[in-house]
Amino acid sequence: MGSEGLSTVRVLLCALLFAMYLVPIRPAIAINLNNSEITNVENLLKAKKYTDADSKALLLLEQALQQQHLSADAFSTLGQLLQNASRFEVSKAIFNAALERYTAEGNLDKIASTLLQLATSERNLSNYSTAMTYVRRAMSIAQIEQDDLLKARLNLELGIIHQDQGEIETALEPLKQALRYFRENKMANEMSLSLLRIGDIYSLLNQAALAHTYYQDAFDSIENTGTPRLLGIIKARMGALALKVGDINQAIGTIDDALTLLLSTDDVGAIAQAKMLLGNALVESGDVAKGRELLKEAMQFARSSGQAKLMKEGRLALSQAYMKEQSFELALAEARTGTIDARKNRDIRGQLSFLSIQLSAFVSLGEFKKALDIQSVIQQLRERLLDSENRSAIEGLQAEIELVRQSRTLEKLEESKQLVLAQAERENLQTTLFWSVSLAALLLTFLVWSRYKQRQQTIILRREVRQQTLTLQEKNQELERAYKTLEEVSLRDPLTGLYNRHYLESQLPGEIRRSQFSVKQNTNANKAKQDLLCLLIDIDHFKRINDDYGHMAGDKVLSAFANVLKEVFRQTDLIIRWGGEEFLVVCRQSNREELPELAERCREMVARTSFDIGQEAPINITCSIGFSLLPPDKEDDFDAAWKRTFAVVDYALYATKLSGRNGWVGVIETLSSHRAHPTLLDTKFNFPGSRIATSFNNVASIKWPDTLDK
């Protein structure tokens, strides 16, 4: 064989060996390929091409799910990259895919870690309820696995979630638990982050000195070993605290140092937060133009990443900047948008902040009527916020009363124990005396004297027992009276004497369940009085009464109006002061066909009643009513049934006001088949059709509001 033949054989052998080698390494090539694609996503994030990075990550996710060639760990790595770049929506999808893989593998440790990552993404998107669910699921696994490190990290996340929701006192305890573990195990970065979050809480409580101490401790603990990212975040918090106490120059310098540290990292979310703080500080110092540009940059990032909290803070600062520039229309536009977002997120404090800016802007523009309307809304929101805080205080007081009651019970048991011991001692002494008399007659005189003394002690003891018993009875009676007084205060409106929302929330679930059970047992709905009826009643132009005659006159009208409602409705009906000039009535064991009659009776009696307000002559008022069957259609869940019903009656009440007031609009029942021409109410609440009644000319004359948020 010549040299050319040997060369050919060598080539064929090499090709064969190479082909055999390809078979076992094909999965490795796939993994390397996937790692390369993950690196491409990372490069796009570093280049700040966030839209391209999101698209690439989602495409990689779809391909991996179809071909099953990407491991759960690879999903987790990709999700972490996206989360670090504040791409929280896309990171949720990636982490969910990882969670499915880990669940299929039965890897509890990785499942818990992924649930923690999902909670972080949801929290940054202000989806606090979902984030809390993920934390609880992960905490259950940590309890089963007895993983103290995971518990500490979950406590840290739990504290941050409570803090972001404004639940300050609730947030402090899990943060301190996390700090205790990290400090005992000398985990510097985690300990520093816990100190930082505790400092945030004291800052919110306006305890600036204590907050600064925690921030300084957080910085000192990692000054020589910590990452620039965490050091920059702590510096930014220090600057925010200086800005809050009015030290503008100190705030600008500290936040600028923080921004320098953060710009050397890839944490675009922290950079945006620092820019927002610096922009706010510059606005306060008078450099409004430069500060406004930084605020716009931060808001643009918050909008693209879906961070509602950062967007709210930036919009609030930007609207304040416009106010300083006297650009009142621009400030109004930002404040209105912020108010709508806060209302969607049920953020009462956020609404108050933005409404306060609207109030200042309207006053500056000379639109005093609109300013008065805004002031009225602010007052209502403050009452709601105060009502929520009072509820928490009442619950705390009830807990204290229960604690006192338990303490009294323990004291009573202890005294009973002492009595039993005394009784046993007495019996023992009687036995001793008996044997003494039997053994020695010489001791007779001594025994008589001893028995006399014993009887004296018994009389004294019984007297003391009787006195203690009477004292305990008096204290129990006092405690019972205090409890009844507290219960009465917590369930009734002090001005009108009507029940309040707390009472409704405690009674309504049972009423709905009884009504639904009655409907199932008796299908003859036309004859049996088994319905729940709901009417929302509002005094027309009540604000004018306060403006023209004063708030004391308004209080007299409210009290007298409550008496009129008591005459119109039965004693068994629930009459609730809903808030302000609104009253809610729930009629039990009624027939839905009675709704128009009840509404008209109420409207007519209010219209012909003269209300004494302490002036020379009484006044006459009217009212507007919205009503509905409770619930308007079949609902098994109480929360869904009540929220849906209240939305319907509120919508109907608003329609009454738009249609001219002094009347009523409501839903008698919903239909099972679709109507050819549905009303706006049917469309809004997704009813197939409904039977509507009104005091106006006809249903076609009703002016429906476009949305409840208006």
UniProtKB/TrEMBL annotation:
<feature type="coiled-coil region">
    <location>
        <begin position="462"/>
        <end position="492"/>
    </location>
</feature>
<dbReference type="Pfam" id="PF00990">
    <property type="entry name" value="GGDEF"/>
</dbReference>
<dbReference type="GO" id="GO:0052621">
    <property type="term" value="F:diguanylate cyclase activity"/>
</dbReference>
<dbReference type="InterPro" id="IPR011990">
    <property type="entry name" value="TPR-like_helical_dom_sf"/>
</dbReference>
<keyword id="KW-0175">Coiled coil</keyword>
<dbReference type="InterPro" id="IPR019734">
    <property type="entry name" value="TPR_rpt"/>
</dbReference>
<dbReference type="InterPro" id="IPR043128">
    <property type="entry name" value="Rev_trsase/Diguanyl_cyclase"/>
</dbReference>
<protein>
    <recommendedName>
        <fullName>diguanylate cyclase</fullName>
        <ecNumber>2.7.7.65</ecNumber>
    </recommendedName>
</protein>
<dbReference type="InterPro" id="IPR050469">
    <property type="entry name" value="Diguanylate_Cyclase"/>
</dbReference>
<dbReference type="GO" id="GO:1902201">
    <property type="term" value="P:negative regulation of bacterial-type flagellum-dependent cell motility"/>
</dbReference>
<dbReference type="GO" id="GO:0005886">
    <property type="term" value="C:plasma membrane"/>
</dbReference>
<keyword id="KW-0802">TPR repeat</keyword>
<feature type="domain" description="GGDEF">
    <location>
        <begin position="530"/>
        <end position="669"/>
    </location>
</feature>
<dbReference type="InterPro" id="IPR000160">
    <property type="entry name" value="GGDEF_dom"/>
</dbReference>
<dbReference type="InterPro" id="IPR029787">
    <property type="entry name" value="Nucleotide_cyclase"/>
</dbReference>
<dbReference type="GO" id="GO:0043709">
    <property type="term" value="P:cell adhesion involved in single-species biofilm formation"/>
</dbReference>
<feature type="repeat" description="TPR">
    <location>
        <begin position="152"/>
        <end position="185"/>
    </location>
</feature>
